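protein under study:
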Amino acid sequence: MYYLKRKPQLFLLHFAGGSCYSFDFLNKYLENDFELYPIELPGRGKRMTDNLIFNKEEAIKDYFDQIRKLRNQKPFLIYGHSMGATLGLSVANKMKEINDRPDALVVSGNPGPGIKGNEVKRYLLKDTEFKQELRRLGGVPEEILKNNDLFDFFAPIMKADFEVVEKDNFIEKGIVLDIPICALMGDQERTVAHIENWKKYTNVSFDFQVLSGNHFFIYDHPTILANAINSYSAQPIVAKTLQAN
C-alpha cells in the first residue's frame, strides 16, 4: 500500500522592501517537501494597491490574519528573514494563543528582538544617506539605486518597512515559545555576535549557524537554508544538525 507524503505548510515572511517573490530562489529546494506560502505585507507585489503599513502591531496582525485564512489541518512552520524574523516571532506567539502553534520558527539575518544593531533610523534618512545604507546591507540591485524613477517607486516601501521595525516598541519582550527556534546569520552582519539572543525566546530547543556573507547571505546558501527548514518538517522536539552544501 502506498501513502502520499503529508506535506506541511511553510509560511515565508519577507525582509524590509521584500514581497511574496523574495523567496522564489528557494522554490526548487523546498517545493517537494512543503506547501509553500510566501505571504507579504500590503503595498507591494500582489498587494500593490493596498495601503502600506507603518506600525508593527498592524504588520503582525496582517500576517496573522493571512496565515489563519490559509491554515489547514497539516503541520506548519514559519520562516522569516530580517524584518520577517522579528514579525515571525510575534506571529508564532499569536498562533500559539489560538492553539494552532507552528512546529518551529526559523529565522535569518536577525539577532532577535532587543538587540540594537543600528542606532540610525533608516526610515528617516534622506535619499543620499538611505542609498548608502542600502548598499551596505546589500540585496538591492544597483540599477534601482541609480535609476531615480525606480528608486522613487521602491523607497517608500522600504522606508515603511524600516519604520515598522525601527520604532522603539519592544513588544516582543517576555515572549517565550514552546517550539524550537533555529537562527542563521551571515558572518559580516554587525550583530552576528548576538545570534544566541534568540535562545531566550523559546523554552524548547535552539539551534544556530553562522554562514559566510552579508545581510543577504541566504542567496549564497540556499541549500543550507533549505536543509535548516527541512530539519523541522517532521515535527522534531530536538533540532537536527544543519547540513552543509
